[in-house]
Amino acid sequence: MDKSRRDVLAAGAAAAGAALMMNGNAALAADLSPSPLLKVNRVYAASDGASRMEVINLKPLTESLPVLSVSVMAFKKGAIEDWHVSPAKFMVIVTAGIYQIELTDGSRVDFGPGEVTYFENLTGKGHYNRTLSDGVVMAMRLADDFDVSALKA
Questions:
Q1: Which of 6, 9, 69, 85 is deepest in the core (most CB within 10 A)?
Q2: Long-range CB contact pairs, 28-32, < 8 A, 24+
Q3: Using 50, 70 and 90 to split pLDDT, how confident is the model at 11?
Q4: Half-sphere exposure of 102 (CA within 13 A, CB side)
Q5: What phi and psi values does residue 148 have, to the nearest 5 degrees?
Q6: C-alpha to C-alpha distance for 130 and 23, rounded to whole angstroms
Q7: Ranges of each domain in the chain
């Protein structure tokens, strides 16, 4: 296995392991108070179809999230995903590099390692993605009935 692929797999495994340990350990989670460490960027479709983003703090998790699948994806600098809606509800964690999304109002938001974005804009005008450096993200597909708002602190 070449070094870059091994690094991608190791980064994804480390991030997945950390998420599973935190989410599966109710005693540890119960000792945590809301903090910037539990910050999530929520991307959603407003009633007019425009994409919007809000930053929310999550209350401590005492149960695992309903994760259906996990994917680890590596991107080269300059990779682009044209305007699209999210095909399902996804929690995306940047593990390396800088990833940028653009919303329908033209605002652009950069995300770096450790930042978490929850995509639930399943309808509307969508969002645009680009990578500003080589990078790796871990995407967790969540159950269709998952509601991140129920976890707001």
A1: 85
A2: 29/60, 29/61, 29/62, 30/60, 30/62, 31/60, 32/60
A3: very low
A4: 13
A5: -65, -25
A6: 29
A7: 3-151
Burial 124-142 (b: 16+ CB within 10 A, else e): bbbbbbbbbeebbbbbbbb
Question: Which CA distances in Å does 46 have to 43, 93, 112, 144?
Answer: 10, 23, 25, 18
Instruction: Please write the tens of the pLDDT for every residue from 110-128.
Output: 999 999 999 999 999 999 9
**Strand 108-111 with 39-45, pairing:** unpaired
Q: Which residue has the tokens 């692929």?
A: 5
Residue range 3-151 in CATH 2.60.120.10 = yes
| Residue 131 dihedral angles phi and psi, to the nearest 5° | -105, 135
3-class SS of residue 98: coil
Q: Is the pTM of this model over 0.70?
A: yes
DSSP 3-state of 94: strand
Return the residue matching tokens 């993200």: 137
Structure token pair of residue 49 = 């179809």
